Amino acid sequence: MISNADLRNDEVIFKPEYLSEAIAQLLAEIMDIQTMKNDMTAINQLPNEVLCNIFVEYKGSILADQPQHPSAWTLITSVCLRWRNACINHPPLWSDIAPCRDPLALTRAKLKRSKGTLLSIESLQPKILTRAAEQLLAFAVCQAERLVFLKLRNRPEY
Prior knowledge:
The model has no long low-confidence stretch (mean pLDDT 81). The protein has a 3-stranded parallel β-sheet with strand order 1-2-3. The protein has helices at residues 4-8, 10-13, 16-39, 48-65, 81-88, 104-113, 131-141, and strands spanning 96-97, 119-124, 147-153. It has 7 helices and 3 strands. The chain has 3 domains: 4-39, no CATH class; 43-89; 93-158. Helices cover 51% and strands 9% of the residues.
């Protein structure tokens, strides 16, 4: 760790390895200060339960406005660490499963994050179903006690 005395010593400060370390330390301090500042904003004073209710409403509005982009709402998980953790740990946000529409990794994540929550599964079966999508769909359908909605189609609805 570089001390303030080291930073004033010309022999130390101009060595690249010390400069890199000093930059890293300062950036870490800036991040800590930014986190403290963010923690003081009004939205971050809300309990996680209230925040998650807002996220559920937001997800519903995105699904209504942009049905062709059902995963667009997940961008809120990139806003900050607190929002990410709140979203990931709120199973109802992950209960809509669409193995043929969502990327494979997202479908797996949804099944894991939904925990014991009731599931809604909608799948448009393409002419050729990938093996991975088929396995995920089979796994999801095996969760029959959790199903609240199941829709399997072989062609798009118009």
